[in-house]
């Protein structure tokens, strides 16, 4: 039996491998090679080995400040996405099919619009004579326009909006997998709605929440256009630092070292996220 | 049934509850009294309304009309967490992110029971379901039967007045199911809690219950003890649902007599006057009559068409003189085997007058 079964299995494995080859090649050529090239460049100067680029990251306070601002923006954006995204995901998961389709469409539709367009749209909404300011003035809540854009606030608002789907969608998927019976059981066992939410609903949606948050956190760390357009020069993120090092100063070594450092930070975040919540064990089998 | 008097001072009283989903009547003016400490099963096919009734008791389904009372208190509009009911769900509904101990302690935590009493109660609960030593296990590390026990312990630790069970054994294999049936029955005796047990498995209901409410199409069609249901079904639906009865159309020829083909049979109970009548034939109630036996019951003539050896018994398929095919069971022992018939044999079957049951046909 086992002997007669082996050949088709091997053929299957071979087929799978051959089907994977193009994708693997693509990843290797377009991702691994440039990445290695990046690392190589970051330790080279004038044809020799150097750690000067990395030393500068530590010694030059401007670099530290840029990293700090980038991470601060990322943290605020992540928090905002989670806080604002949870009710949306919850509403989508708990409502009837029609309302659910509408909510999900509203979440997904912006993804089909260019980031550039959305960034400019936010400028229009938030500027001195924009929708928000004129609205607040009409209501008599303010007498002078509030500065909402060309600063960190504007960057955070636009980035949060752009990245919101990345937390809503995985969260929605996770919430949908919470068995209704488990929630019913929690209620029947004496759990008030608030108790059931904090003790059952939230812990069981944590995997989706965390993967969404990790995604938003990492994506926002690399945001370039949005802080460039909405920051008005007052927000200076790592991605802008990298671009300027190349475009303005032609410093590939410096740009590469910053990129590698950012990449290392991102890996660290994913690693920590996986450590804090062992996702596969939380979901468990029912 | 719908016009019962006021709610009982204890136990569960269901008064004329109805629930419609669109045009579908899931429950149609159902009334039921469950005595304190009783083990009552709700038995019915899927779609008969039994799960709706259970959901209503649990507080997850709001009745369109009617009231629910637990220990003399109107709970019709109470939220689930205010009802003090332990529910064991079909798929256990354990909390996958909590270990065994935290699952079982969940009701105490939710009810803000002082922590000092937890260890003792947890130990007692684990002992009760024979899971001592499993407190720190993750739910994913447990077998189906163990999960079932955790669900039981969790539903009982806060000593609810009422425990609802929604087909709790249906996910287990046959052997484990039978073991758990006995364990549940013993637990019930020890706890003296009222248990309402929903199942579609008539054998399970017959084994475990003090009384059974048989449901069909949103109504309770008969409420009786297991023996009562089995031996004295009120109607063709119950007769067909309980046991392995064959229902044969008969006509009334007297207050205690019916005619089947050219055979006249005496019945133990008065024959209903109106409607289509059905004779209820259980395989185990029939016996092969022998020449030397004194006449002691109704006699049916027929021809054996098939025999089926089933280990503990042999099943005979017989075509009656009136044309219908029925089944009967013959115990598999030496005495019976000597007389065992073969296909083609003409046989006379005996049916005791008290086992000759005639019910009105049609549902309800």
Automatic annotation (TrEMBL), chain A:
> Keywords for this entry?
Cell membrane, Membrane, Transmembrane, Transmembrane helix, Transport
Q: Which InterPro entries match?
A: MetI-like (IPR000515), MetI-like_sf (IPR035906)
Question: By its UniProt entry, which PROSITE patterns does this protein fall under?
Answer: ABC_TM1
Q: Where is the ABC transmembrane type-1 domain?
A: 67-273
Q: What is this protein called?
A: ABC transporter permease
Mention any one GO cellular component term assigned to this protein in its UniProt record: plasma membrane
Q: Does the keyword Transmembrane apply?
A: yes
What Pfam families does this protein's entry cite? Answer: BPD_transp_1
Q: Quick one: a GO biological-process term for this protein? A: transmembrane transport
Domain of life, per UniProt, equals: Bacteria
Q: State where it is primarily located.
A: membrane
Q: How does this chain sit within the bilayer?
A: Multi-pass membrane protein
* Location within or outside the cell: Cell membrane
Q: What is stated as this protein's family in its record? A: Belongs to the binding-protein-dependent transport system permease family. CysTW subfamily.
- Annotated TM spans: 12-40, 71-90, 102-125, 153-175, 182-202, 208-231, 252-273
From TrEMBL, chain B:
Does the keyword section mention Transport? yes
Gene3D superfamilies annotated for this entry?
P-loop containing nucleotide triphosphate hydrolases
Describe the reaction catalysed, as an equation. ATP + H2O + polyamine-[polyamine-binding protein]Side 1 = ADP + phosphate + polyamineSide 2 + [polyamine-binding protein]Side 1
| Residue intervals of the ABC transporter domain | 12-242
- Using the UniProt record, name the top-level EC class of this enzyme in a single word: translocase
Entry keywords, A to Z: ATP-binding, Cell membrane, Membrane, Nucleotide-binding, Translocase, Transport
Example of a GO MF term: ATP binding
Among the GO biological process terms of this entry, one is: putrescine transport
Q: What's one Pfam family the UniProt record gives for this protein?
A: TOBE_2
- Give Gene Ontology CC terms: ATP-binding cassette (ABC) transporter complex
Highest taxon in the source lineage: Bacteria
Per the UniProt record, which EC number(s) apply here?
7.6.2.11
Instruction: Please state which protein family the record places this protein in.
Output: Belongs to the ABC transporter superfamily. Spermidine/putrescine importer (TC 3.A.1.11.1) family.
Function comment: Part of the ABC transporter complex PotABCD involved in spermidine/putrescine import. Responsible for energy coupling to the transport system.
Share what the entry says about its subunit structure, partners included.
Answer: The complex is composed of two ATP-binding proteins (PotA), two transmembrane proteins (PotB and PotC) and a solute-binding protein (PotD).
| Protein name per Swiss-Prot or TrEMBL | Spermidine/putrescine import ATP-binding protein PotA
The protein's organism comes out as: Gluconacetobacter azotocaptans
Q: What is the lineage of its organism?
A: Bacteria, Pseudomonadati, Pseudomonadota, Alphaproteobacteria, Acetobacterales
């Amino acid at each position: 039996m086992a002997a007669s079964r082996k050949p088709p299995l091997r053929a299957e494995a071979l087929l799978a491998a051959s089907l994977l080859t193009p994708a693997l090649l693509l990843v290797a050529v377009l991702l691994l090679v440039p990445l290695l090239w990046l690392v190589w460049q970051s330790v080279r100067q004038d044809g020799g080995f150097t750690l000067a680029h990395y030393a500068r990251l530590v010694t030059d306070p401007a670099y530290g400040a840029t990293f700090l601002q980038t991470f601060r923006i990322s943290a605020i954006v992540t928090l905002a996405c989670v806080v604002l995204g949870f009710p949306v995901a919850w509403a989508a998961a708990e409502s009837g099919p029609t309302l659910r389709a509408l909510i999900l469409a509203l979440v997904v539709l912006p993804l089909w619009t260019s980031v550039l367009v959305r960034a400019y749209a936010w400028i229009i909404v938030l500027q001195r004579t924009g929708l928000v300011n004129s609205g607040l003035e009409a209501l008599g809540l303010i007498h002078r326009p509030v500065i909402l854009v060309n600063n960190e606030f504007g960057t955070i608002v636009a980035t949060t909006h752009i990245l919101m789907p990345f937390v809503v969608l995985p969260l929605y998927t996770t919430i949908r997998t919470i068995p209704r019976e488990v929630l019913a059981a929690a209620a029947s066992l004496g759990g008030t709605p608030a108790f059931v939410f904090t003790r059952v609903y939230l812990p069981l949606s944590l995997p989706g929440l965390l993967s969404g948050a990790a995604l938003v956190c990492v994506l926002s760390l690399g945001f370039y256009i949005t802080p460039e357009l909405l920051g008005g020069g007052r927000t200076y993120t790592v991605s802008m630092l990298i671009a300027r090092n190349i475009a303005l100063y032609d410093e590939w070594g410096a740009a590469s070292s910053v990129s590698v450092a950012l990449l290392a930070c991102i890996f660290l975040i994913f690693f920590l996220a996986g450590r804090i919540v062992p996702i596969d064990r939380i979901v468990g089998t029912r | 049934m719908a016009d019962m008097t006021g709610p009982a001072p204890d136990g569960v009283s269901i008064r004329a509850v109805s629930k419609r989903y669109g045009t579908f009547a899931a429950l149609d003016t159902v009334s039921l009294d469950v005595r304190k400490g009783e083990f009552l099963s709700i038995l019915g096919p899927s779609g008969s309304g039994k799960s709706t009734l259970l959901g209503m008791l649990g507080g997850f389904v709001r009745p369109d009309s009617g009231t629910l009372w637990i220990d003399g208190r109107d709970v019709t509009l109470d939220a689930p967490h205010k009802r003090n009911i332990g529910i064991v769900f079909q798929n256990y509904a354990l909390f996958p992110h909590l270990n065994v101990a935290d699952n079982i302690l969940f009701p105490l935590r939710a009810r803000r029971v002082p922590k000092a009493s937890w260890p003792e109660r947890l130990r007692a609960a684990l002992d009760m379901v024979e899971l001592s030593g499993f407190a720190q296990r993750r739910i994913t590390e447990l077998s189906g039967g163990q999960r079932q026990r955790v669900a039981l312990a969790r539903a009982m630790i806060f000593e609810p007045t009422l425990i609802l069970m929604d087909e709790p054994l249906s996910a287990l294999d046959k052997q484990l199911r039978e073991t758990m049936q006995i364990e549940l029955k013993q637990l019930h005796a020890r706890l003296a809690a009222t248990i309402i047990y929903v199942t579609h498995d008539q054998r399970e209901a017959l084994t475990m219950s003090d009384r059974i409410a048989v449901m069909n199409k949103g109504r309770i069609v008969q409420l009786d003890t297991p023996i009562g249901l089995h031996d004295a079904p009120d109607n063709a639906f119950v007769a067909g649902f309980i046991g392995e009865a064959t229902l044969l159309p008969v006509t009334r020829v007297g207050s205690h007599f019916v005619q089947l083909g050219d055979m006249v049979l005496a019945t133990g109970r008065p024959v209903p006057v109106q409607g289509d009548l059905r004779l209820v034939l259980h395989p185990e109630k029939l016996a092969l009559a022998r020449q030397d036996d004194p006449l002691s019951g109704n006699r049916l003539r027929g021809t054996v068409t098939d025999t089926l050896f089933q280990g503990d018994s042999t099943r005979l398929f017989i075509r009656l003189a009136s044309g219908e095919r029925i089944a009967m069971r013959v115990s598999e022992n030496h005495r019976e085997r000597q007389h065992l018939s073969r296909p083609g044999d003409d046989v006379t079957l005996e049916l005791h007058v008290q086992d000759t049951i005639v019910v009105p046909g049609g549902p309800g």
